[in-house]
């Protein structure tokens, strides 16, 4: 168990936001290049990160 679980949750939340934003950026580029399979996959990653963010936000309270 980590020494400070709240600190780990904060870092994981920040990492979750960065991954979500990167997935959205890659998805936009994929749509521009007409690579729709990659765009859908990145959209799913972004949605998954949003759900993780909501879950971790609740556990920080």
Properties at a glance:
61 residues; mainly alpha; 2 helices; single chain
Number of strands: 0
N-C termini distance = 19 Å
Oligomeric state of the chains in view: single chain
How many distinct helices?
Answer: 2
Summarize the structure.
The chain is mostly helical. The protein is built from two helices and no strands. It is elongated, with a radius of gyration of 14 Å.
Describe what you observe in this structure.
By secondary structure, the chain is an all-alpha fold. It has helices at 5-32, 36-60. Helix 1 (5-32) packs antiparallel against helix 2 (36-60). The mean pLDDT is 87.
Helix and strand layout, with pairings?
Elements: H1 5-32, H2 36-60
Helix pairs in contact: 1-2
